[in-house]
Amino acid sequence: MGQYIIEGGKSLCGSVRIQGAKNSALPILAATVAVGTPCVIHNCPDLSDIDATLKILRSLGCEVHRSVGTVSVDSSRISLNSIDDVLMREMRSSIIFLGALVSATGEAVMTAPGGCDIGLRPIDLHLAAMRKLGIRVAERHGKIRCSCKRVRGNKITLSFPSVGATENIILASVRASGVTTIINAAREPEIVDLAMFLNSCGARISGAGESVIVIEGVERLHSVQYAIMPDRIVAGTYMSAAAVTGSSVIIEDVIPSHLAPVFSCFEQTGCRIEVSGNKLRITAPKKLCAPDTIRTMPYPGFPTDCQAIMTAVASVADGVTLINENIFENRFRHVSELNRMGADIRVYDKVAVVRGVDRLQGACVDATDLRAGAALVIAGLCAEGVTTVNSIHYIDRGYDSLAENLTSLGVSIRRKD
Ligand code: UD1
To answer: Which of 153, 183, 218 is the last residue of a domain?
Structure first.
């Protein structure tokens, strides 16, 4: 249960390079199971969720090697198609192994996944989609068993564009007989990254990034080397760090188009964003203006994963911001901690009303989930005095070298484990 100890009020300068995207790396590592031959994944971030994924891969009998930024996985000798409950509980995205294992072995046995407590997070869409693909799904004594001789392509309409369900359908059907069509698929850039990885292994997936994805099943896939795309949520976090401290910072290794809804929010606060290729500079005014109403939506809407950090930004802006969380039911747990630091935020069901204050004050606060933890670090950067953020193991799930990067930008931050 480590802590970050942050001395607020320092101005930031310099540049930071954005890590590979956690939410791409996790499904792509799971996808190596469906590939069935050795793959090398570059730009893989050093995160506890990646450690958990590698543990699952090893438990299945995959040969896994890791060096700085690169993971190689050989899944040609999988010896098990079930995942232990302890491993399943470590993170939500362990559910993506369902589609990958069925693809590779015709069977998968697992329990419900764990992960950050930000809402109910059911898996009904995943299981309904598996059934549509001709997979038998049995749920007994807390275990889910999926099995079939060969996955059969089908047309699947999702009632909500779930990221995880879209990924599971792609993985289950990539080696199926026939064609699978996903209607109302998630359009997140991480879906595109997964499809590009699989296509470079010989898969035939078209339409990723749009609402209709077509997967023509292929007999087999082949080995590949692939680099994970940059993490748009981490980029948004460093932009927030610059914004709340009135600083000018260069952010390298970003895909600017992935950040469009986030950019427009920062621009409303008075920040200037200059983009040049895969780099950007954000320059913040001395006092931020409150952004307009923020509504979290599936991509290309404003990402729910940036909601907490934007709440921290709005808490020190001039004016009132309404923040409408439409994706998860329990994603305002950072609010009571921000209020401990002197923020003025009230929550009415799915809406937070943020009245900007002049200054936050350093306090001892608890990270309750990954992005809530990041929001508290952001708040600590601009708070008067010292902020201690507890339970930073949540932050370790998604941020590689956070303290080192902030230190190199001029922040006084120390990690205590
Ligand atoms: C992924 C991301 C997460 C992000 C989220 C939304 C990963 C590893 N995680 O999570 O960081 O916040 O997308 O962009 O990529 N739902 C159902 N039934 C289901 C599946 C989902 O009701 O079977 C609901 C969820 O409870 C939630 C909404 O759909 O309210 C969105 O969930 P989903 O898009 O599936 O998110 P994840 O894939 O879990």
So the answer is: 218
